[in-house]
Amino acid sequence: MSHVKVMTVFGTRPEAIKMAPVVLELAKYPEYITPVVAVTAQHREMLDQVLNLFKITPDYDLDIMSRGQTLFDITCRAMQGLNEVLVKEKPDIVLVHGDTTTTFAGALAAFYHQAAVGHVEAGLRTGNKYSPFPEEMNRKLTGALTDIHFAPTATARQNLLQENITGESVFVTGNTVIDALKVTVDPAYRFTDRLLQNIDYDNRKVILVTTHRRENLGEPMRHVYQALRDIVTTFSDVEIVFPVHKNPLVRQVVQDELGGIERVNLIDPLDYQPFANLMARSYLVLTDSGGIQEEAPALGKPVLVLRDTTERPEAVTAGTVKLIGTDREQVYAATQKLLVDDVEYQRMANAVNPYGDGQASRRIVAAILYKYGLTARCPDEFKAGNS
What we know:
The protein has 387 residues and is an alpha/beta fold. The protein has 16 helices and 13 strands. The strands form two sheets. The chain has a seven-stranded parallel beta sheet with strand order 3-2-1-4-5-6-7, sandwiched between helices. Strands 10-9-8-11-12-13 form a six-stranded parallel beta sheet, with helices on both faces. The protein is globular. 50% of the residues are buried.
């Protein structure tokens, strides 16, 4: 084969952030690669923010998002839209990312058309099919359909080998989110939001908070917010910045527990660029997000994960991430310790970043060229600690 058509499929902001560097890298090899970009727009507005930031114009935009959409809706609309694209384009390989419903639908649609599947950020597992839901099974089902697995870490590779996936099909690349961070975070960045401009990042311990997981809706989130209220009441030098998810089930509990509290800034979700730069200037991060568990360690920020399980154990092992669940007393105790114990804080902040060195996209494209016989050189393997 002298040329390969590579179609990338993604639909949410987290996918777009991590696939944007891959899209840009694919475009560097016009003599070998014909790139095609298809987005489902599972998340419309949040996706567009990232496309604009990285100056990516999709070849196909399925625009499937609808108010009150269910997992059934997303899956069916994505499959139907991608079928038409695949019929027209006939790609050699379809690249999907991570664990969203778009990811699984993209892999299944490619399989139905007998196109190869490349899974970026492959091999993450918790071992519990309902945690996170539906992401854990989206990953496993996608993995079963995948021909080339781009594992971000050696741990992810081992997970795949334990599922009887052949080692020749797995490449350890590092995580593309580090590639994205390297071109997004800027010490000279100036926030356009007046509130974020006026926060005293030098003299306040700014805690960045995000919550959105389905399994944490209701009382678990309420307990977390109560702990945050306790923290800001106890520590006069703490300021919380909380970009609140647009899910009304999240917003109602946030307002009940944290509305009107001094030094608790409840703001709308941020675009990726200001969010990444806010994370870089924060003291500490509390989150139930998966991606932030990768991003914050790369910025030297300790992360307290508001979950009982994680598909990203590398940072837990390295010491920069700690699972604390959602119990009010546990959330308070873990946060309080990092606010008063400088030794513990520095231990987490200075742990080795296990997720990437900013070269993941280069390795992914090199692996595609290698697998399709367009280059004789197998890409180097990412090894934590060498970044």
